Structure formats: C-alpha cells, structure tokens
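Illustration: Class I SAM-dependent methyltransferase.
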Amino acid sequence: MHTGAQYHEFFLTSRREVAIRERFQQRVQGLLAPGASLLDFGAGTGIDAKTYAAQGHRTYVHEPSPSMRAHLELYCRDDIAAGEVVILDGDLPCQVDAVTANFAVFNHIADQRPLFAQLSGVVRPGGFILASVLNPYFLGDAKYSWWRKNLLNLVRHGHYGFATESGIHRFAPRLPARAARPHFRLERVLPGGVAKLFAPYLFLLFRRT
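Result:
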C-alpha cells in the first residue's frame, strides 16, 4: 500500500496518470455549472479537490485512509482554511450537484448498491456522479496471466476480483449500472467503441433520477 506521500508523488510525476487526471478533470468541469458544489469521494491526497476549489467549486472531500487524509490536509491547508475544501466523515453530511470518484475508488467496493443509495441523499436531482474505474477490457493487461484467467469470468458474470489487501474488483459497466438503480441511471461510458480496448480507465457518468 502507498503512503499518502508516495501516492502524491507518483500521481504528480507519472506522465500517464497526469494525462488521465487532466482528462477526468476536464470532463468534470465540462459538466459542472459555474459555482456548483461537489463531493470528491475517495479524494486521496486532494489533488483533484484543490483543482476544483481553484475553479470556484466548493469541494467536500471524503477520504477514509488516515495517511491519505493527513497529506490532503497538508496539501489543501489554505483551501480548507478558506472553507473552499471541506473534509467530511463517512456520513457524508452535504448536498451537492455532483460526486466525483477518480482513479478506481469504486473498484474497492464489491457491492455498490448501498453506496449508490447513500449518494442518492447527497446528489441533488439532475446532478451526476462521474467515476473513473479500471477498464476490464483493456488490452494492455492481456500480457498478464490474471487477465487471461479471468476473461471468462468477465464474459459470464461481468466481474472478477482479487484477494488482495486493497480488495480490487474489476467489472463490466452493466454491474454498477444495475447497482445504481433506481437512484441513478448510467448515462454514458467513455471511451466508447473500439477505443475502449486501449484505455486503462473507463469514465462512467451516472445521472440522478
């Protein structure tokens, strides 16, 4: 497991991860109205949160890892002091226009139905959730034996998981779409078509019903 400092350094210096983060942030900004509020769910060390706050969005953050949260409090200390970034506990006491979950936060949650039910009380009607999830179809992973061994599980069941400390689960978009009902509908999966095979992450856009 990465410490907060290690995570922060990696995600600010890896060219691939920086590019993915920029695409995600651009997608969020394109969906948000000026001055809209959001919850950064699984905020890590606050890299996204700081950007959203700088763009004029009051940003609530939830991060369960003590190491990540400690680094977030350091990295976003000025934004927190100004009330532009607000740290929440697990009860998520806020009402926002959107929820963002970047870099595979949802992949740590096997049963997502309780999460979507909880978030339905957080996201205002017409708002959205944008989550980036590990792409189970990514051909770049075909070189690994675990990908090849689980391909049949993906086709048959739509998911597979690993018995690791972090408990990573990979799933076809139809599973979170089903878990989100009736509170949210899956509006879009990006990228689509053949391009999906070459993207390490998928962006799933859910709309509050």
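Reading the tokens back as a structure: The helical segments are 4-13, 15-31, 47-54, 66-75, 77-81, 113-120, 145-157, 174-180.
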